[in-house]
Amino acid sequence: MNIPGMLTTEQAADLLGVKKESVYIYVRRLKGFPVPTKVGRTLLFDEAALQQWRVDHPARPRG
Known about the structure:
Shape: globular
Largest sheet: 3 strands, antiparallel
Strand content: 15-25%
Number of helices: 3
Helix content: 40-55%
Distance between the termini: 35 Å
Order of helices and strands: EHHEEH
Low-confidence stretches: none
């Protein structure tokens, strides 16, 4: 599915640098995480909202 400005769960995971499963967990558990729009069985995320969320919640260093 290709809608400008919208990302699939897999694309959202790539943008955030996490696994796809983590995105599902974020949707269920994190207050303030961008709420996806459901189109059929596909979750679509607003790309700008995800980018802003990442700015507000920087990735933790691993290691």
